[in-house]
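Summary of Year 1 activities. Much of the first year was spent building the evaluation harness for sequence design. The harness presents a backbone, in tokenized form, and records the residue chosen at every position. We chose the following record to illustrate the format because it has been used consistently in internal testing since the harness was completed.
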């Protein structure tokens, strides 16, 4: 918790990325910590609650919104929501 809060305070925004369902994952845990201790804009890049298909990592990352471009878009969205004076 201490490290999550410290990094959120330094950056003013958080993006999590995981190849896991967004419910019950890393993003949810970090959101809970920040909600209690240091409210911070957050974006979660994760599999939206749906059944998975088989394929190569490259195919699946694109299919489920986990690619590099999806992460970059999440960063852009969360930076726009940062409080003035936050570090980028």
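For this record, the design step produced the sequence shown next.
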């Amino acid at each position: 918790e201490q490290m999550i809060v410290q990094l959120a305070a330094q950056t003013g925004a958080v993006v999590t990325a995981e190849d896991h369902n967004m419910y019950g994952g890393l993003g949810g845990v970090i959101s809970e910590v920040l909600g209690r201790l240091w409210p911070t804009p957050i974006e979660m890049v994760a599999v939206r609650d749906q059944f998975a298909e088989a394929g190569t990592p490259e195919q699946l990352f694109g299919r489920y919104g986990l690619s590099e471009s999806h992460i970059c878009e999440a960063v852009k969205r969360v930076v726009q929501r940062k409080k003035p004076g936050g570090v980028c």
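The chain is about 50% helix and 15% strand. Quantitative recovery figures across the full test set are reported in Table 2.
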